[in-house]
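To: structure desk
From: M.T.
Subject: fold request, one chain
Message: Could you run this one when you get a chance? Sequence is below, nothing fancy, just the single chain.
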Amino acid sequence: MHKIIFIITCLLICPPPTFSANIKGTIHCNGNGVSNVYVSDGQNWAITNAQGKYSLQSQKKNGYIFYILPGGYAPEMSKDGFSPKFWAPLSSDTKKDETHDFNIMPASLDKYQLIVNTDQHMANKSNDVKQFSDFFMTSLHRTVDSSESPSFALSLGDAVWDEYMYETGFGYADYIALLRQTKYPCALYHIMGNHDNDSAIPAGDDCDFEASALFRKHFGPRFYSMNIGAVHYIMLDDVFYRNEMPTDGSPIPTGAAGSPDFYDDIVTAEQMGWIKEDLKHITDKSTPIIVGIHSQGWKVSTNGKYDVLPYLKDDNSTKFAELFKEFSRVKILSGHSHYNYHAHPAAYKNIHENNIAAVCGTWWHTYQTSPRHLCRDGSPAGYELYTIDGDSISWTYKPIDPIDSIGDHQMRVYDMNTIRDFCKGNDAVKKFYNYYPSLPNYAEIPENTILINIWDYDVDWKVEVEENGGKLPVERTTTFDPLHMLSIGLEKVKIGKKPGIDRPILTTHMFVCHAATATAPVTITVTDSFGRVYKENLIRPKEFSTSMR
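Reply: Done. Structure tokens follow.
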């Protein structure tokens, strides 16, 4: 009895501590508070009350606070016209109380276009600043200016280049200045890529977090979400940066504390937990979900079977996919690879990944040796353009290369007879194949072969070829793009260099057929996922040159 009395007395004298928030603020729209808006610091969550006010106790680890844009609204924009003001930096002092208010505007956004670009690799080398301005930004302005709908953009990482950040002195401030100088034309949301880390941060337990400090300073959250119209977006950092010293004596970049090649492609447990909480707030499981990551979640095999395989480390692709199992429509947008493909994991019918080729193509190198901007799979350097109409989503690939930007072109067709003749007896080609003996030898390709590179091909596309009114059998094949070899590989070989990252790769969006004659015209008809038809009339023989379309 005495013990019970003591406990009750103690509770009356020493009540439990009351909750105190060190971050508070209001979400406004036209001067009025907006209720039920979620706010997060990347670890903790809050929701605005009827007056639009929120409060949060934060450890301030990430150094920012942000809100999740609700459907039916658009974010307030910075004076630069492209930076959405959805986040604010925090003091590092956890004892300091802070107030951060945000403004949003009503916007139905029933229809808009979404520009998805990745892998700019800006470093002030290879004439990249001029190429970025003259080709990418010119194309982007044309795309935005010609649209009757609002535009938004996602940048999926590798905006800058850690390997050269200290050698050339080109960093985030320079990148943002370039966006301002070229008048980036719409709201732009960023995530990190492996090359967006600070290579001066040494390896250690905190390397990944500390190496993201420059990104966080300029762009805020490493992972966050927002609703634009009827679509829920989740933007993530799926690169764990280790920056270890190489053990083989390999040199490290100027100013670096280790090799930027040391990183893991993985969605961390911290982000997994945050995603689970974010998805709890979506009650309608038919809501379209678009997930932005840098490194691919899934890959398509080049073994001729086109199996879709996990890409992330330690079965992380599967664990990641499991988070979305209750949602019927999940689209993953990724970059990193510098080539195009679409992946449909067999075990996850609700998931479709669109891996998007690079703005920089082959690291801006092909334009140095030819008049082309090409990725390693032969796709033109470019970006994906999505049209969001309610909950309906469609897309198309947009090249920045003027040769491939004429009309709505989605393929390049090769008369392999001219390529076979070019390769035969060509000393540079022989040397190229000595470097890469596993690549198919086009000097030995069968007569009257037609090769078609369909950049944005997906499994529900239809490919048809006719010669003299008769249909030719067409097969999907795994090979490499001849134009890429001609544009950069052979030029490197001619000056005595072995192409490294410049070499072409095997790609899975190639098609082959065999004509009956060497000179009869051939008509290629391609129908995409949305019933759009692309045609090319191949007049043979067709030249093989860097200026070919």
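Reply (cont.): The radius of gyration is 26 Å. Let me know if you need anything else for the meeting.
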